[in-house]
Recover the amino acids of this structure.
């Protein structure tokens, strides 16, 4: 499996009307849930969970980006901070095992299909960037 990075916005709210619960933002809650799910699936060495301070949609439910070198990148938006961690961890496992990150659409968990905002081409790795003179 290829190592991937899952960026999770730590400032996302639970909802527009409810920014926090028990002192945690929706993003912080999702990060805690994901840590447990990734550990339960033995994915800690395969998926690097990386909290970020902002993904420019703080007033909405959770936003994440899943990426790996030479694989497509998924940007997901509107994930439930309380319900999406198990399916997101499953998708991370599928992504890490898939060639070029291309998890067949029908095999993705429903919540992933519904929350996919963007699929981006693989980012160039430094050794493949054009040389300037």
């Amino acid at each position: 499996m290829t190592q991937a990075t899952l960026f999770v916005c730590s400032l996302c709210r639970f909802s527009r009307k409810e920014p926090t619960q028990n002192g945690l933002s929706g993003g912080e809650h999702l990060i805690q849930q994901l840590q447990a799910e990734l550990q339960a699936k033995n994915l800690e060495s395969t998926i690097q969970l990386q909290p970020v301070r902002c993904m420019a949609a703080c007033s909405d439910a959770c936003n994440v980006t899943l990426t790996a070198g030479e694989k497509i990148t998924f940007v997901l938006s509107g994930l439930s901070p309380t319900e999406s961690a198990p399916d997101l961890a499953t998708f991370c496992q599928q992504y890490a095992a898939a060639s070029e990150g291309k998890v067949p659409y029908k095999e993705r968990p429903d919540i992933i299909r519904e929350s996919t905002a963007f699929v981006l081409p693989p980012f160039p790795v430094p050794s493949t960037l054009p040389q300037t003179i």
